[in-house]
Design goal:
Length: 481
């Protein structure tokens, strides 16, 4: 247990009662999950304002309240200006500020966060660093893997995981940071040692309404109170804008624009990609066991970070070529005399880069299976359809995580960007779509299955149905389908 006043360290508040000796057993911002002795933090919100549930939390056994205004509860209450920021600080205090005992690396961007985080983790582990990762694929503490629902979890979950990392002896925590997490102050009060900016392209406009808001949210993280330094992709137009405006030390990386670390002579080879990297005027030949120019960007971001941590370049070169497959990120499976690629690409920019990379390794046609998520950014659906029609020889439209939206309506939105091409078919069931598409392959063809990557389910309505693109590709490659 922790005293209420201890939890409020670093939080500006007014108290409506004496809270000095009050003991707190846990912290919650969801009244439905409150337990006896918990502190309930009322989150403001247009749709579901937590202040309206303070009395409910009291009835479930809450010991105290944090809120932005007075509530119907008669419990000891601390009034704060911003309850989201207060909640983040309170969660840090509850777990004894584990972030202060770790080196924190954060990765921000629309695409490439997961691949860059796993590359970084691999290169660091190979030289003896004890690492932890939090991101889209869940979280890892050393070699122990766990699932999470969000790329960047709730503040309480983040700090609970970081505390577990500290207990396990982790030295460096690598975190993917989503735009939602930034907007909701989930990391407020945690200062990164180094942050990587990968890129920004259209995504999540269902939440952020317009691209500028989404972009401004991402870039708002690059302030001295959030990160001590940054590694920025100078080939990204908005990355260059960030470089000009940021007030923190910045190192740039890229391929096409002048930068501190850059790659050149990129060539597709059997099993991956070779390139020359110039790292602060040290020049080395590299081999990456992944395809696509966009993965070279991810690699040089990871190389830059690891080099800043004093890992010698010859060691980085040796270990990069030993990179294991990253779940759901350009995973390549042999199927008869063709190939199947499974990738998480779920944005217009991500799909375009994926199909460009698939074309590089195809000796025949490129067949694409994909859909879009329901109850999410509808604007990108016809845009992705247009990209698919332009870059794939044949497209099979299917379901993704439809949630509570009709799959037929989602598919119709995608098809709206493809009407003039006529090179698409609709197979609503995803498993059937993948099997059907595999049956279309000839020698040298490539089948791209995009959008879900390593996910192990399809969300339909309020249910999660067991399904995996990776498992389907494995079964096909083994001749079991």
């Amino acid at each position: 247990m922790v005293t209420f006043s201890k939890l409020l360290d670093g939080v500006a508040y007014d108290s409506v009662a004496d809270i000095s000796g009050l003991k707190i057993k846990g912290v919650s911002n969801d009244s439905r999950k409150v337990k006896e002795g918990d502190l309930f933090v009322c989150m403001g919100g247009a749709e579901d304002d937590g202040h309206a549930h303070a009395l409910e939390a009291q009835m479930l056994g809450a010991a105290a309240i944090v809120a932005e205004r007075e509530t119907e509860s008669s419990l000891p209450t601390a009034i704060v200006t911003n309850s989201r920021r207060a909640y983040s600080k309170i969660c840090q205090n509850f777990f004894e500020n584990p972030h202060k005992k770790l080196k924190i690396v954060t990765i921000i961007g629309t695409n490439g966060k997961t691949t860059t985080s796993y590359m970084t983790e691999h290169l660091l582990k190979k030289v003896g660093y004890k690492t932890g990762v939090i991101g889209t694929l869940g979280y890892k503490i050393l070699d122990e893997k766990h699932e999470t629902d969000l790329t960047t979890p709730d503040s309480y979950v983040i700090n609970r995981i970081l505390a577990r990392m500290v207990r396990a002896g982790v030295e460096i925590a690598i975190m993917e940071v989503s735009a939602h997490a930034i907007a909701q102050d989930r990391l407020y009060g945690i200062t990164s040692d180094i942050s990587i900016f990968t890129n920004i392209s259209e995504d999540h406009l269902d939440y952020f309404c317009d691209f500028r808001h989404y972009y401004d949210t991402k870039l708002s993280f690059f302030k001295k109170e959030n990160t001590k330094s940054a590694i920025i992709n100078s080939d990204d137009v908005l990355g260059r804008e960030l470089y000009k405006s940021a007030e923190i030390p910045i190192i740039t990386y890229g391929i096409d624009e002048p930068s501190d670390v850059f790659a050149l002579d990129i060539e597709r080879k059997e099993g991956g990609t070779s390139f020359i990297v110039n790292v602060f005027d040290e020049i080395y030949e590299m081999f990456l066991p992944m395809y696509g120019k966009y993965n070279v960007y991810n690699a040089i971001a990871a190389i830059t970070l690891v080099k800043l941590l004093k890992v010698p370049m010859p060691v980085i070169c040796e270990n990069l070529q030993k990179l294991p497959p990253i779940p759901g990120r350009f995973n390549v499976f042999n199927y008869k005399n063709a190939k199947i690629i499974v990738d998480f690409a779920h944005t217009p920019d991500g799909l375009e880069k994926l199909l460009d990379a698939a074309r590089e390794i195809s000796e025949g046609k490129v067949v694409l299976v994909f859909g879009c998520g329901g109850e999410r950014d509808k604007i990108k659906r016809p845009l992705m359809g247009k990209i698919a029609a332009r870059l794939a020889d044949r497209v099979i439209l299917t379901e993704d995580n439809s949630r509570r939206e009709a799959p037929s309506e989602i598919i119709a939105d995608i098809a709206g960007g493809m009407r003039e091409s006529g090179n698409f078919e609709i197979v609503p069931d995803r498993r059937e779509a993948v099997e059907y598409a595999a049956g279309l392959l000839c020698d040298g063809d490539v089948l791209v299955v995009a959008g879900k990557g390593a996910e192990k389910y399809i969300e339909r309505g309020d249910r999660r149905i067991k399904y995996s693109d990776v498992d389907e590709a494995l079964l096909l490659s083994r001749g079991e389908k």
